[in-house]
Each structure stands twice: as structure tokens, then as C-alpha cells.
Design a protein that fits this description.
2 strands; 166 residues; mainly alpha; 2 helices; Helix Hairpins; disordered N terminus
Length: 166
């Protein structure tokens, strides 16, 4: 049952969780930029490798023996390292995304519990307030009983007898 004054999560109700979540998102953005930069570097190395390989084969259509061109070998090694770095960063990005998703779900559950607890406090206060008002109304009603209903002093009857109060 929702009461009309039930609270909703106000911004900043749990600022520590919000701040931690934003920091994780900022870290994810940095990792994704690093993935993009590594992929770009890998692509550039791939293009350089292709150009150098084409130059090395020349008009003969033959590829030079492995190890015969040190520049080509260095470029192949750099390309392989860039490929590994891109894969490593991409895996880190996926792990971080999973971690952030889990954190977000826990954060939302905590916020929901917080709002529910606030609603319960407000409902309890309203219930206690209504109970107090009912008790006050009964007390006031009892103190304002009309004079005709109150027993009065005994009335003396002729013959010296007194009537009991009504």
C-alpha cells in the first residue's frame, strides 16, 4: 500500500553509492578509449606491414625469406604486440563492464530498500499520529460531556430525605 506522502528517492539520498558508480563509469570510459587507441595503432601497423610486405615482394611476386628484412620483422613483432594489447584491453573492458553492471544492480537494490525503509518510517509515523489523534479525540469528548448528563449534588426532598444523584 502506497501512502500519498510516500517518498521517492531524492537525488543524493545515497551519495556514496552514486559517486562510486560515476567513478566506475569514468574508469570504463578511459578503458574504452584505450581499446580504441590500441585498435587504431594495430590497424596502422597492419597497413604499414602490408605496404612493407608489398615493397619487399616487389615485381617478382616472391616474399623474401623470414628474417631477411629486419624492418619487416620488427614491424611484425610490433603488430603482434599491438594485437595482444588490444585483446588484453578489450577483455579488461568486458570485465569492468560486468563489474559495473553488478554494482549498478546492487546499488539499485540498496536504493529500493532505502526508499522502502523511508516509506515504512513515514507510514509508522502516520499510524502513530492517527492513533494519538483518536486518543486525544476520546479524551476531549469525555471532558466535554454535557452538564445534563453529569451527576449533580443530591437534591433535598420534602421530609428531609435526599434523592440520589442521577
Amino acid at each position: 500500500m502506497k501512502l500519498p506522502f510516500a517518498t521517492t528517492r531524492s537525488p543524493g539520498a545515497l551519495p556514496g553509492l552514486d559517486r562510486a558508480y560515476q567513478q566506475q563509469l569514468a574508469e570504463l570510459r578511459l578503458v574504452r578509449r584505450a581499446v580504441a587507441a590500441a585498435a587504431t595503432a594495430q590497424k596502422q601497423l597492419e597497413l604499414q606491414l602490408r605496404q612493407l610486405t608489398e615493397r619487399a615482394t616487389g615485381d617478382h611476386g616472391e616474399i623474401s625469406r623470414p628474417g631477411s628484412d629486419p624492418q619487416l620483422e620488427t614491424l611484425r613483432h610490433r603488430y603482434s604486440a599491438a594485437q595482444e594489447e588490444t585483446q588484453r584491453l578489450f577483455a579488461a573492458s568486458r570485465r569492468l563492464q560486468l563489474k559495473i553492471d553488478a554494482f549498478r544492480m546492487a546499488k539499485e537494490a540498496t536504493e529500493a530498500a532505502y526508499v522502502e525503509a523511508q516509506d515504512a518510517v513515514h507510514a509508522t509515523r502516520a499510524e502513530v499520529g492517527a492513533t494519538c489523534e483518536c486518543a486525544l479525540d476520546r479524551t476531549e469528548a469525555a471532558s466535554h460531556v454535557s452538564v445534563s448528563n453529569r451527576p449533580g449534588p443530591p437534591v433535598a426532598l420534602p421530609g428531609g430525605r435526599a434523592t440520589p444523584p442521577t
